[in-house]
Amino acid sequence: MTTLRDTVESSASTSATAEVVPTTIGAATPGHTIGPFFHDAFAWAGTSAGDGPAAVADAGAGVLDTVVGTGDLWIEGGVEDGTGAPLPAWLIEAWVPQAVEAEAAAGHPAPGFRRVPNGPGGRFGFRVPAPAPGQPAAFVTLFGLGLTRHHCTAVFLAPEGDLLAAVPPERRATLVATSLGGGRHAWTLRTQGPDETVFFDYR
């Protein structure tokens, strides 16, 4: 380690030697798209996520941070790793174009926008109006602890559409939610493995 020596003259004309040792800086560590205390902040704000519409507390009335949105359809699911284990420290943001007009008219602060932290079991859910034929129900961005760059994807309610047609046939099912009846749809976001969700590189 390099040592720097500076000689400092005192007011009494006596000399002293001060050793200045620079701090050693190691290699930079990768960042995360959300921090380790992110979900604690959501819990502090009184928000939560779970299974089904009734289990999600929408804090949109007082806190913009969590927004499940409006619409007759409910998309619920989980974030998993390649082994199927849930990943709880993740955040889902979604853009729902077909919701913009109605939510803007209703005075929503962020029309068409959804932001949902997943719960302890990796679960999440948000609302959407019915999309136009061939269009995604939502364009989704995924953030997570340990994820150094956000992932972009989309969820469809039917296996049709130009965007879906651009995906290899054997992988299209990862973008299509399963109907549970009563306006509910299930969709799993898998971050890796043979059934990894298709993620898009938007340019």
Kindly summarize this structure in a few lines.
The protein has helices spanning 38-44, 100-105, 162-165; strands spanning 4-9, 15-20, 73-80, 90-95, 113-117, 123-128, 138-144, 151-155, 178-181, 184-190. With 203 residues, it is mainly beta. It is globular, with a radius of gyration of 24 Å.
Account of the 3D structure:
The chain has 203 residues and is mainly beta. It has a single domain, classed as Aromatic compound dioxygenase (Protocatechuate 3,4-Dioxygenase, subunit A, Sandwich). The protein has 3 helices and 10 strands; from the N terminus they run ββαββαββββαββ. The protein has helices spanning 38-44, 100-105, 162-165; strands at residues 4-9, 15-20, 73-80, 90-95, 113-117, 123-128, 138-144, 151-155, 178-181, 184-190. The strands form 3 sheets. It has a 4-stranded mixed sheet, with no helix packed on it. A 4-stranded antiparallel sheet has the order 5-4-7-8, with no helix packed on it. The protein has a two-stranded antiparallel sheet with strand order 1-2. The longest helix has 7 residues, at 38-44. It is globular and about 45 Å long. The model is unreliable at 1-16, 46-52 and 54-65 (pLDDT under 50).
